[in-house]
Write a structure and sequence with these properties.
The complex is a heterodimer.
Chain A: E1 4-15, E2 18-29, E3 33-37, H1 44-51, E4 59-64, E5 67-68, E6 78-81, H2 95-101, H3 104-107, H4 114-126, H5 142-154, E7 160-164, H6 172-187, E8 191-195, E9 208-213, E10 216-221
Parallel strand pairs in A: 3-8, 3-9, 6-7, 7-8
Antiparallel strand pairs in A: 1-2, 1-4, 4-5, 9-10
Helix pairs in contact in A: 2-5, 4-5
Chain B: H1 7-32, H2 38-56, H3 60-81, H4 86-107, H5 113-121, H6 129-158, H7 160-165, H8 170-192, H9 197-211, H10 215-240, H11 244-274, H12 279-283
Helix pairs in contact in B: 1-6, 1-8, 1-9, 1-10, 2-3, 2-4, 2-8, 2-9, 3-4, 3-8, 5-8, 6-8, 9-10, 9-11, 10-11
Classes of the chains: A alpha/beta, B mainly alpha.
C-alpha cells in the first residue's frame, strides 16, 4: 500500500454536479510509466485534476506517496505539466523566469541559493532550452512552450511527473525531443503519469496503459504494441488523420 | 527651483516618488493576471470611504483604506467563486462606490461634492504632514512585502493552477494582492486622485512592455517610468497650476506613446536585418499556435 505513488480507489469527480469520472481505481507504483489514454471528454483531464487535488473527489479515496491527499504536504515531490501554459498572461516573462517558478515549491519564501539556480539551469538543459533562457515565452513555438512547462516541473526534482497532453499541437521533431527528455528522467527512476490521446514517440517508454471512456476505466494493462498503436476503442470516435493530434476533438466538434 | 522651497511641494514630491514606485510595482501583477481595471474599481469604492470620513469627522484616508480593502477583498472573492461575473462584480462596485460617495457627502453637514474633488483628481496642497508619514509607512510596507513574496506572487499570477500544485498559498496570495492594490490606491489618492490612480498602476507597465521582454525587466522599466511621470507631473503642475493627477497621467501616456514608437522602430529595424537570414527557415512548416 505505502509503496504506491498514486492510490485512487473508487474515485468519482465532476463539475457542476455532472460526473466526469465515476468509480475509477488507479494504482501507480514507483518507477512505472503509465499512460492514460482516451478520447476527448473521456475524463482524462478530470482524472489528472483529481489526482493533483485541484478537483475534490465526490466519492472515493486518494493517497499520494502513501498519505491521504487531504494530509499530503510534500508537493515538491510532484511535478505537474499542465495542458496549456500560462503563456498568455498580460506581462511577458522569459523562459528562465517561468522555469524558476517551479523551484518555489522547494524554496518557499527563502531567497534562491546557488543550488536552486543550478537546478533551474539543469532543468532547462534537460529539455534543450538552455540557449533560449532569456527569450520571452510568448514568442516560442507550441512545442518549445511545452518544454518550458516540463522544465518548470523538473526544477523541483520531483519523484512523480504528471503530464497532461504534452504532445498536443507539437510537431514530430519536438515530440521526439520530449520523448528523449522523458527517457532520461525515467532512467533516473522517476515515476511518470502521462495523459494523452496519442502515444507517438512516447510508446517505447510506456510500461502500462490505462484507457478511459465515459469517465470509467475501460482497459488497464500492458501498453499496446506499436503495430496496434491505434487499437483503442476511442479511436473510432475520431475520423481524423493520425498525424495531426492537435486537430482532433475541438476541430471536429467532438467536445 | 523655487518650487522646492515650499514645504507642501517637498511633501508632494516625496509622495509622488513613493507613489511612482508602488503603483506600478503592484499594478504589474494586476496587469499580469488581466485585472488591469481592478485599481479603478477599488478607487471608486475608496470614494465612499472618503465621504464616510467626512461624515464621521475622522481622517478620510483612514476610512478610505478600510473601504478600499473591503471592496478589493469582495472583488477577489467574487473572482475566486465563479468563472464568470468578475467583470459584472467590478461594474457593481464602480457604480456603488461613486454613488455611495456622492450620497454620503450630501448627508454630511456642510459637505458638498467640492470636498471630494481633490480626492478625485489629486491636489498639490492636499498632502498634509500626517499624509506624508502615512504614505511613507504604507509604501514601505508594500515594497517590503513585494520583495518578500514577489516571486510567489509572480508564480500565482502566471499560472494559478500550477502554483496550487506546487503547494503555494494561492488563496492567501490572491487576497494579499487585493489588499495591496487597495492600499496602493489609498496611498496614491492624495497625489494622483482616485479616478486616475489606476492609470499609474497600469500605464507604466504597458510602457515597459513596449521596450523589454521578461518580467524582471518589465518591473525595472515600469518603476522607472512611473517615478519619472509622477515626479515630473507634480513639478509641472506647480508651474502650470493644474491638478497633478491629470498631468501625471498625460505624461505617463506620452511615455507610452514614445515607447510604442521606439519599440516599433526597433522591431522593424530588426526585421529588416533578419531578411538576410536563410529564407528556407521561414518556409518550414510552423506549429499550430497555442
Amino acid at each position: 500500500m505505502t509503496s504506491s505513488v498514486i492510490d485512487l480507489q473508487d474515485g468519482s469527480a465532476g463539475y457542476d454536479g455532472r460526473l466526469a469520472l465515476s468509480g475509477v481505481d488507479l494504482q501507480v507504483d514507483a518507477g512505472e510509466v503509465v499512460a492514460v489514454l482516451g478520447a476527448n471528454g473521456s475524463g482524462k483531464s478530470t482524472l489528472v485534476r483529481a489526482l493533483l487535488g485541484l478537483l475534490p473527489l465526490t466519492t472515493g479515496r486518494l493517497a499520494l506517496f502513501g498519505e491521504p491527499v487531504r494530509r499530503f504536504s510534500h508537493w515538491p515531490r510532484i511535478g505537474y505539466v499542465p495542458q496549456r501554459g500560462g503563456a498568455s498572461t498580460g506581462v511577458p516573462a522569459t523562459v528562465r523566469e517561468v522555469v524558476a517558478t517551479g523551484r518555489l515549491a522547494r524554496t518557499g519564501l527563502r531567497p534562491m541559493r546557488a543550488a536552486d539556480r543550478a537546478a533551474i539551469s539543469r532543468a532547462m538543459e534537460a529539455v534543450g532550452l538552455a540557449e533560449l533562457a532569456r527569450t520571452s515565452v510568448a514568442t516560442l513555438s507550441g512545442g518549445q512552450q511545452q518544454r518550458v512547462l516540463i522544465a518548470r516541473a523538473l526544477t523541483c526534482e520531483p519523484d512523480l511527473l504528471v503530464l497532461d497532453e504534452p504532445t498536443a499541437g507539437v510537431d514530430a521533431a519536438n515530440q521526439q525531443a520530449l520523448a528523449s527528455s522523458l527517457r532520461t528522467l525515467v532512467g533516473h527512476g522517476a515515476t511518470v503519469l502521462l495523459v494523452t490521446h496519442e502515444l507517438g514517440p512516447m510508446l517505447p517508454l510506456i510500461t502500462r496503459a490505462v484507457t478511459l471512456a465515459d469517465g470509467r476505466v475501460l482497459h488497464d494493462g500492458p501498453p499496446p504494441d506499436s503495430d496496434h498503436l491505434h487499437l483503442h476503442d476511442h479511436d473510432h470516435a475520431h475520423p481524423v488523420h493520425d498525424e495531426h493530434p492537435s486537430m482532433q476533438g475541438s476541430a471536429w466538434g467532438l467536445r | 527651483m523655487t518650487a522646492l522651497t515650499f514645504d507642501f511641494m517637498q511633501r508632494a514630491l516625496l509622495a509622488a516618488l513613493l507613489v511612482g514606485l508602488t503603483a506600478p510595482a503592484v499594478g504589474i501583477f494586476l496587469v499580469q493576471r488581466r485585472l488591469a481595471l481592478m485599481g479603478d474599481g477599488i478607487g471608486h469604492v475608496a470614494l465612499t470611504g472618503v465621504a464616510l470620513g467626512f461624515l464621521l469627522g475622522t481622517a478620510p484616508v483612514l476610512t478610505a483604506v478600510i473601504a478600499a480593502t473591503i471592496g478589493a477583498v469582495v472583488i477577489e472573492l467574487v473572482r475566486q467563486q465563479g468563472r464568470t461575473g468578475g467583470d459584472v462584480a467590478l461594474a457593481l462596485l464602480f457604480y456603488g462606490g461613486i454613488a455611495g460617495g456622492v450620497l454620503l457627502i450630501g448627508l454630511t453637514p456642510g459637505g458638498s461634492n467640492a470636498n471630494l474633488l481633490s480626492y478625485l483628481f489629486g491636489s498639490l496642497t492636499a498632502v498634509s504632514p500626517t499624509d506624508v508619514v502615512l504614505i511613507c509607512l504604507l509604501s514601505g510596507a508594500l515594497l517590503l512585502t513585494l520583495t518578500v513574496v514577489g516571486r510567489q506572487m509572480f508564480a500565482v499570477c502566471h499560472d494559478e493552477e500550477y502554483a496550487r500544485v506546487a503547494g503555494l498559498p494561492v488563496r492567501f496570495l490572491n487576497l494579499l494582492l487585493a489588499v495591496m492594490a487597495a492600499v496602493t490606491v489609498t496611498v496614491a489618492m492624495r497625489v494622483v486622485g482616485l479616478l486616475l490612480v489606476s492609470a499609474l498602476m497600469v500605464v507604466p507597465v504597458a510602457t515597459a512592455q513596449q521596450l523589454v521582454r521578461g518580467f524582471r525587466a518589465t518591473v525595472v522599466v515600469a518603476l522607472a517610468s512611473g517615478v519619472l511621470a509622477s515626479v515630473s507631473g507634480v513639478l509641472g503642475s506647480y508651474y502650470l497650476d493644474t491638478a497633478p493627477g491629470a498631468l501625471i497621467v498625460v505624461l505617463a501616456l506620452s511615455g507610452f506613446a514614445l515607447a510604442t514608437l521606439f519599440g516599433t522602430l526597433v522591431r522593424r529595424a530588426r526585421r529588416t536585418t533578419d531578411v538576410a537570414a536563410p529564407v528556407g527557415v521561414a518556409l518550414l512548416p510552423q506549429e499550430a499556435p497555442r
